[in-house]
Amino acid sequence: MRTAAAGPRCVRGFTLIEVIIAFALLALALTLLLGSLSGAARQVRYADDSGRATLHAQSLLAQLGVGEALRPGTRQGVLEQGRYRWVMQVTPYTDPMKPRPAAAGSAPRLLAVELSMAWGDTDRESLQWQTLRLAPAEINPSAALP
90 vs 5, which has greater pLDDT? Predict the structure, then answer.
C-alpha cells in the first residue's frame, strides 16, 4: 500500500491578488473611520464654542440695565482676549399690530434687544439672540449715565 505524501498541491494559502484586495479594503475602511472621527472632533469643537458663546450671552443679557440706564443704542466688545466678538443693539419696540399711542413721559418703555456673538472666521460661527426688556421711566433724565 502506498501512502499519500503531502505535496505542494495540498498546501492552500492566499494568492497575491487576495492579499492586495484585503489591504485595499482595510485602507478604505481606515480612511472612512478617520474621516468620521475628524468630523466628530469638529462637531465637538463647534459645540464647545457655541456653548461658551451662549454662556457669555447670558451674562451680557443679565447685566443689561443693571448699574446703568437701559437706553437705545449700539454697544460692542470682545471677550476672552478677542476670541468672542459681540454687538448689542437696543431699539424702542413698536408692535406692528397696534397703532403707536402717544407715550407719557413717565411711562416705562419696551425695548427690543438683539445680541450677536461671533467667533472664528465664518458666518457659521455666530449666534444671535433677541429679547424684549422693560425700561423704567427715568426720574431725572439728566442724571442718567451715558
Answer: 90
